Sequence to fold (1068 residues):
Amino acid sequence: MSDRFNYEELGLKVGLEIHRQLDTKKLFSPAPSELREEVDFVFERGLRPTMSELGEIDPAALEEFKKGKKYVYEGNYELSDLVYMDEEPPRGPDREALGVSLQIAYLLNAKPVDEVHFMRKIVIDGSNVSGFQRTAIIALDGRVDTPWGSVGIPTICLEEDACRIVERKEKEVIYRLDRLGIPLVEISTTPDIHHPEQAKVVAKYIGDALRATRKVKRGLGTIRQDLNVSIRGGARVEIKGVQELDMIPLIIEREVERQLNLLKIRDELRERGVKPEDIKEEIHDVTDVFQNTESKIIARTVKKGGRVLAVKIPKFRGLIGREIQPGRRLGTEMADRAKKYVRGIFHIDELPNYGISEGEVNAVVEKLGLGEEDAFVLVAAEEETAKKALLEVIQRAREAIEGVPEETRRALPDGNTQYMRPLPGKARMYPETDIPSIYIPPEEKERVKASLPELPQERVERFVREYRIDRSLAETLVNDERDELFEELVGKGVKPSLVASILVVVLKGLKKEVPIENLTEEHIRDAFDLYLNGKIAKEAFEEIFKELARHPEKTAKGVAEEKGLTLLGEEEVERIIDEVIQENIEVIKAKGMGAMGMIMGRAMAKLRGRADGKLVSSLVRKKIQELITN
Amino acid sequence: MRKVEEFMKAHNLEVGDLIRVVKREGEERLTFEGIVMPPYELSPGETLTLKLDNGYNIGVLIEAIEKVEIIEKASGRPKMEFREVLPKREGLPNVRVLGTGGTIASRIDYKTGAVHPAFTAEELAKAVPEIFEIANITPELIMNILSEDMRPEYWRRIAEEVSRALNEGEDGVVIAHGTDTMGYTAAALSFMLRGLTRPVVLVGAQRSSDRPSSDAAMNLTCAVKMATSDVAEVMVVMHGETSDTYCLAHRGTKVRKMHTSRRDAFRSINDIPIAKIWKDRIEFLRNDYRKRGEGEVRVDGRMEEKVAILKVYPGISGELLDFLVDRGYKGVVIEGTGLGHVPQSFIPHVQRAVEEGVSVCVTSQCLYGRVNLNVYSNGRKLLKAGVIPCEDMLPETAYVKLMWVLGHTSDPEDVRQMMLKNYAGEITPYTRFDTYLR
Fold:
């Protein structure tokens, strides 16, 4: 799939930036790092741009501030403390998080710094209550080796996660505090990845190193992979929010496709002889054309006092409708830019459509005095809003003449990407003076290095070797992070093959029937304890787990009893076997040991899951033999 | 000297120099380029701190540094200059902003990470442009000390600067002050500034002004607003709640810092604040304040500094009080338990103090409520011993007031009379229900 293009020829360059939450306390407060939906209190703040040494304030930030943008924070009494309300100086940093990030550094062949200095990185979109994110370089100069060559890891940082965004309104943004301050490890690579599959390999390797520490969070939103993609002649595009490893090659391929198509459009535009300044900021009111329109959207907007505005995009006819990614056109990119202000735009290449008639299209063409190669874009909205939307469209059209715009894009579930915002400027940082620097003496580095956790792949190999279990079972155990539990249970004396088959095969089978995510390690441990103490048979696990997944509040012991899955004592087993033998005494007399199979079957029907099969079989054999010899 | 200082000296390195170092890392050699940063005070000093081009600071183990090369000296870079005074605008009131230390506005050098206090008019106008819409602001730095280092002689100096500004025709004065002892200074100014006819507002910040979330700018804006109001009193203006919604103006004798770190740490105790200051208006919560008028303000700053506060606790020894008496202290404010009590065993020591001419005042460590020594026998014994029960005065206010009173008289009866006279709203006549924990 990924060999649709000759990436080497295209000069593909990809860099990764991977953020992963650590499963520790918050970075600068011992508050729990959990997410929860209950909101106990709300407060609001403004953020003021700070003046730099040149006596200047970031103009964009100042503009936001002047508009009186408010940030509303929703907190939970148990999870949100004063540190993360910016009402108390930071504590910590969390030693565990620091230790884990040092391990990660060594696992990625990087060199930890000798003294860690936390910095304040200015972020004034409200996502950090303080107006800055605390971040520190933990290590430098790491490396991942791949079959395509080595990829550098210039920095490994430990930083604070930001608030979760709840809602963005015109004058205020609502954030949830719980995520703020969860430790994040940020790993960035050099742009030395030259093939989409290579990106996946690097991401996988980094992900494995992170998981090896067993101190990273799992699940949706705990890992964020950003891709920086460019091709020769194209531009650096930052793609945010890639959740799944398997999507990485597709997203890169699609981005290459997008940049190639944008370059083709650029070449055609140049051939047609259009320059950015040819696209004039002349906005025409064409509302009268749509007096009796069939288009519901336009009719509704006009009725509410809105206007229909149009702009001429010279020489773009046929190109706005040109597909640049499956299902996405240049027009889609224009619409994405305008999205800040309006739901959508109409462009000539897709019309007549959406209730807009050919007559109306022709009228607009005439009104704007369009030539054969010229295009138009329409927006229906309140006048000022419509104008702003069209200015965004004009901006994007001008960029199309230049080629590929540098920007930050959002990954979509189908592998395409969508405009998010311009590339961020250079980070503005200054020291976090409330946190002492942390000296890492050479002895401590040696200690960390000497006790590095096993990488997942090494662990699989060891499981196969040491426990003689199937490789695929070992892989699943490690990938599902059941490996630690596995070793614990084996350590207690359960046969490795049994533990592996229950943790992998049985649980996988149940996945389709019941919500097995409800099953805790505690549940599993308890069930194995019952087994080890001879209270249940191995056949009972499935039934017990099924019930526990449905009712996690129950205990393994409770379920075993309730479902009659507890093993019977030997006397009781013997009594039941005696019954079966008495019921079939004639057959035994007739067939002798030949009746063994049949008796065994009848006995197991009564005893399955309640007595060990071996015990039943030895008892049945003994009883028949006694009968025959007497 | 730590290793880092020795190393910097040996290699002629100054903070701000752009340098390149080569460090040994096992078999490898790592090269770093960055700006030399000041060594952190509490660091063991084993590393040299560099600010890398990506903005991050890191520490490099000095022992492992093999080579140092200076690329550019810091001294070569230009310094910033700002105008001290800006032209006045017709029709706006005039407010002087006195700086006493700390920073109400700051400037960050993102190149070196240094934070500089910004106190010239031009810098203030850039950092907090809103206040220049309210008034013509004249900033003046009168001292530079930390709040916890404040002393009675500095209160006097501040009082003199305030009266000078007002008598020169300013419509109000704002005093930027560290928050730790702002309550004490507010009380001191309340007693020292006699014949006050214009607002005097103390203001501070609980979050440093270098951060985007700082409360400094909003507090300052509200303070300037209050300084142009018609309240001719000494006030403290700070955040009213954790949200950036309004500030409160507290009476200078009734305000206390009640939290170590929150923005809304300052609360009126046993009293309601004078006003709520919103973005667009002042909402007065009472109208019994002293009104703006004409006339010169006068500083009456005589203070007896041999005064102490003594907090009573279970197991306290009377020796502590004896010590103060023996050392020649003229006044002691006791923070008693509950209604103002001390242990029975402590009473003879109080008696002795009074007999030796020491003025002993009683307040409560409850902070909220009024002392009353008539209810229990130990209280009655204290009264008999000759203490002065200080009604609903804050212990800190009583302490400042006692210094001021003793600066004027040493006659025990005069002291008692003055302590119980209400000079600046420090005593309320009766206890309102709505003054507790709000």
User: Anything to note?
Assistant: Chain A has four domains: 7-27+93-161+182-269, 272-401, 456-562, 570-629. The mean pLDDT of chain A is 91. The two ends of chain A are 75 Å apart (CA to CA).
